[in-house]
Specification:
This protein has helices spanning about 10-25, 35-45, 45-60, 80-100, 105-125, 125-145, 150-160, 180-190, 195-235, and strands at about 35, 65, 70. By secondary structure, the protein is mainly alpha-helical. The protein has a three-stranded antiparallel beta sheet with strand order 1-3-2.
Length: about 240
């Protein structure tokens, strides 16, 4: 057992890491308000470290302030998603290509184990667990690039996209699941072929973009419908 005393800084870190995990796993929906006291009670800590963790996530654009006392998950537009997607393709593809230069057999075995856990979560229809294992797989790949600043930028993009990943529960992937792109990433790492690893990452980003776009467009159409009705009544 770790006997290190809990300091204010460690509690802040725990609250921040917990909220990051929940955001990446799609626990919170776009537009959902987060209640400080409920989160603190759930974590079993005082509201202060949770408040500071929320403030940090607001500064990272993973959450947004609404009024003086409310915090919510941002509503992402199609335009913003397109920008985030373009950045993910560029940065994650680069990280995967660099990772292929440094990957060792032990690294690949660890990644294979993560992927197997992810596949088991998928078969069990545990979407939150599947998303968490997918995030672990990608971050472990990008860590091999040995570029911590690049990895931190990628993590910020994942925080913004996490709430949208619940769209995968209601909108099917564009293509049947013949072979998961992770296998292509792993092949690139085994062969130290950066372009193959890059292609696997890009394929996965492209594959998951279609249902997210369908979700965003459906949400936009639903929001526009009351406005059209109001306009007709006013006329």
């Amino acid at each position: 057992m770790d006997d290190t005393p809990l300091t204010r800084e460690s509690l802040n870190g725990q609250a921040y890491n917990r909220l990051c995990r929940d955001l990446k796993a799609g626990r919170f929906a776009p537009g959902e308000k987060l209640k400080l006291r409920d989160l603190a009670a759930e974590m079993g800590i005082s509201p202060t470290p949770v408040r500071e963790a929320l403030a940090r996530l607001i500064s990272e654009q993973a959450l947004e302030q609404v009024g003086h006392h409310s915090v919510r998950v941002p509503l992402m537009s199609e335009e913003r998603f397109a920008e985030v997607r373009a950045l993910r393709l560029m940065l994650e593809g680069r990280a995967a290509a660099l990772a292929a230069k440094h990957a060792e057999p032990a690294d690949i075995r660890r990644l294979e184990a993560i992927h197997e856990r992810m596949a088991a979560r998928h078969d069990a229809r545990d979407t939150a667990g599947e998303l968490l294992e997918a995030e672990r797989f990608h971050m472990a790949v990008y860590a091999l690039a040995r570029m911590p600043v690049l990895q931190r930028m990628v993590e910020g993009l994942w925080l913004q996209c996490g709430p949208l990943m619940r769209a995968l529960q209601t909108h099917a992937l564009a293509q049947p699941r013949k072979q998961h792109p992770h296998h292509l990433v792993l092949r690139g790492l085994r062969k130290h072929d950066g372009e193959v690893a890059r292609r696997g990452v890009e394929e996965e980003i492209e594959r998951t973009s279609a249902p997210i776009l369908a979700y965003l467009r459906g949400r936009g159409a639903a929001a526009a419908t009351p406005a059209r009705k109001t306009a007709r009544v006013a006329a």
